[in-house]
Amino acid sequence: MAAPMELSCWGGDWGLPSLHPESLTVMAYAKFSGAPLTVNTISNSWRVPKGDVPVLISEDIVISQPAKILNFLRKQKYNADYELSAKQGADTLAYIALLEEKLLPALLHTFWVEAENYCSVTKPWFASRIPFPLSLYLPGKMSREALNRILLTRGGPPPYSLTEVEAQIYRDAKECLNLLSKRLGTSQFFFGHTPTTLDAFVFGFLAPIYKVCFPRVQLQEHLKQLPNLCRFCDDILTCYFRLTVSDPALIISLQMDDNLRKSPQHPPRKLTTLKLAAGGEESSPLNRLSP
Prior knowledge:
The protein contains 10 helices and 5 strands, in the order βαβββααααααααβα. It is α+β, with helices and mostly antiparallel strands.
C-alpha cells in the first residue's frame, strides 16, 4: 500500500482551489496523473519547513518546490507525461522556462507590487488567513521579496528605472501569453487530448491572473482577449476541480481503473468529457512562483 501523501498550500477563492500559482500547479498535476493527495490549506507559511509553499509530506519525507514535488510523484509512478515523446518532453522544459522568464515577473508584480492591487486585494486576503500578529508583517515581507525578485531578474544593473522595468515585464508577459495561445491553438491541451506537466504549469500561472478580481487588470484584460487560454482554464476548473475548496482540509481522491493500478506506471488521466468551445481562435526549470 502506497504511503499517504499530504500537500500543504495556501487556500483558494474566486472559484480557484488555491490563489497560489505553485500550489495550483501541483494540485493540477496530481489531478492529471491520478496521485491521491490530501490537501490542507495553511494559515501560516512559517510553520512550513523553510517557509516554502507548497510542501508535500509523505511519511518522513518533506518536499517543497513544484519541480521537486512533481519529480517525487513521478517516482511514485504518477506520471502525467507517460505518453510524451522526447521532443515533447524537451518542449515542456522550454515552455516552462519561458513562463518563468517572461510571465512570472508580471504575475508577481500584479499580485504583490502594483499598489492598488496589493492594498485592496492581496494584502487583505493573505492577512485574513494569517494569525495576528504575523498578519501585520508577513504580507509586507512577501511584497518586498516579490519586488526584489523582479528587480534582480528584470531590472539589470543599477541604476534602473522602476517605470521602465514595469513596462518591460508587462510587454514580455503579453508576448508570452500570445505565444501560449498560438501554441495551444484549438487543442484541448498543449499536447492534444491528455493533460501533462506543461498544462499543469500553464494553468498554475494563468488561472490566478484570469480569475482574481483586481482593480488594476492590465494582464487580465490581455488574457481575456485570448479565448482559447480562457477556455483552457475554465475546462480544467470544471472537469478536474469540482469539489468544494473552501474547507480547511480538502481530500483529492482520484479513482483510477484497476488496469491502471496494476500498470508499472500510471498513465495520465484522459479527459473525455470536454468539447471545444465554438469559435475557439488562435491569437497569437521552475523553482518558486511566490516571493
